[in-house]
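Notes taken during the Thursday session

The instructor put the following on the board and asked us to keep it in front of us for the whole hour. The protein is BolA family transcriptional regulator. We were told not to look anything up and to reason only from what is written here. First, the residues (90 in total):
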Amino acid sequence: MSLGDWIRTTLEERLAPTALSVVDESHQHAGHSGWREGGETHFRLDVVSAAFEGKSRVERHRMVNALLDDAFKRGLHALALRARTPGEAG
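Then, after some discussion, the predicted structure tokens were revealed:
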């Protein structure tokens, strides 16, 4: 399973998002710190989940980072994250 697929599956199982976008942007970081041949080092996520209700932006990011701890151990270097509630997503 690719790292992107693992991220998607993990977030779907743990956050039950109403919307989820997982985009590998590694190609945009070629030659930068943390980049490696083959990609899967830099991802952009947009997660909409009721699990974020009542949580600050920092708390939401900490939740997602904690869920993806194994991804960082597998080589994920950077994560651009947008974490919203269904009401914020409109």
